[in-house]
Design goal:
3 domains; single chain; Rossmann fold; 575 residues; alpha/beta; 17 helices; 27% helix; elongated
Amino acid sequence: MSTSGESVGRVLGTQAASPLSFWVALEPGRVLQLDEVVVTRREVPDVGQVLMAGVVTTVEASHEGASYDSDVFLIADGSLPAAVAERAEVRVTRVEPEVFIPPLPGATAYRAGEADRDQALYFDVMDRRIPIGLGRDGLPMYANFDFLDGTRGAHVSISGVSGVATKTSFATFLIYSIFNSGVLGAESANTKALIFSVKGEDLLFLDHANVRLDAAAKDGYDRLDLPAQPFGSVHVFAPPRPNDPNGVPHVAARTHGVGAFYWTLAEFCQEELLRFVFADADDERAQYSLLVGQVAARLQSWAQPIAGGGVTVRLPDGEMSAPCRTFPDMVDLIDEQLTSEATRGVWAGASVPLGTVNAFLRRLRSAVRPLSPIVRGDLPAGRPHSIRTSDAQVTIVDLHNLPERAQRFVVGVVLRGEFGRKESTGTSRPLLFVVLDELNKYAPREGDSPIKEILLDVAERGRSLGVILIGAQQTASEVERRIVANCAIRVAGRLDPAEAARSEYGWLPPASRERATIAKPGTMFVAQPEIPVPLAISFPFPAWATRPGEAIEPATRTADPFAGLPGADDDIPPF
């Protein structure tokens, strides 16, 4: 059997070799670095040649012949004879055929050529693979799409320090690779991505070319066999500007393809959205959590829609309330009904103490300011206002101008709607990829909340429904365990040293954990079920704008479904 790749050394005899790992003494002038793929072979009776391939996990250099630390000065002066010895530890990733025996000391070790490399990293058995970046050798690294689309697994967990780990950048690159690698085939046009943007307007220009894209970055895309271009189909949804009677989207830089989203009071009552006003984990532990469900049920039964999205509510005495046109109107009505002794029992139940009612009302009143722009019945009737993934291949929901309370409400309601829509179709195709940053905020390890319930449902049943979660967080140790456990692919960028020591990163070998604490932006460690060791990859600089200042205005645009609607793009200053 011929061996591709150059010889780098021989299997070491002073360190015990095993079927799982071995050491290689490097030939003079040869160099191995971490993450390179090394192969060796052994002739076995009645079997033939057995390939043993693995990834370099440790590289060491020392003086042979030195006894004391100070001998290094004598050796450097030529007064003491010694030789420099370099050795590398190789963690075995694949044995082919599967005859688990150790390599023999003195066997030649080779830097893997392309064919051996693909075999060592199981790329040769990935029928559907997507490029995820470049390895240390400058060659493409792949992920098995079977573990992304639900065939054999689903979901991705990305961890790392904020601002350095490039979590969101890698998530968008992964989506881009899925859409443009050809792995989806005819399904590509109907496959959707839903991205929640919580950090400024950096994600609002995915369909704009990046002015900073240079030749080196383009070469990276060429190696990965991907086009170096922005996303082709993007639509942005943003909340209305506060106190704006026309509902103009609250964005500063983007001038097209932006629609305002909000929920009418009629939808708020009919869909029982009150529970998402109380979306903190602390709310579920509070005594008023049962009261939330009771009040939501009363609103669903008694609220009657009126023109413009407002409601009027049938009161216990049979009369209709005054029209509610704003969220404060709704809160005032609930407050009036629960503080009145004559109606409190009808709304809350006779057994609910007054202290619990007051706690509920305090929490509800605190939601007036954050939710008033997005829960309303005072805007013109008939205009589109729902977040839809059907308008474009990539749908971005801009949350950065909303308070955290409102962000939770939007994430919970949108995820529930999309998950319910997928359930109603009864099929997993077409796929929907959901990118959610700050996952530890929406699905914390402790406590329960409506959003956490939905995310758990997505993690545990989304695979069969074609809903794939790509979650990013600074600290995986603070995310609900069942969500992380259901992620087939795990990714880490730069990690905080204390966080890297947590058991949630047990999939990273000790050397990789240490390296993750000094990883540069753009370097990620990717673990997937088929490959025994995580892959260290670097992904190319985004070909799409990652902030307004990088955006090149597209020469052509697709038709904007919101064009001509009142307030759709009005009064938005150009960037």
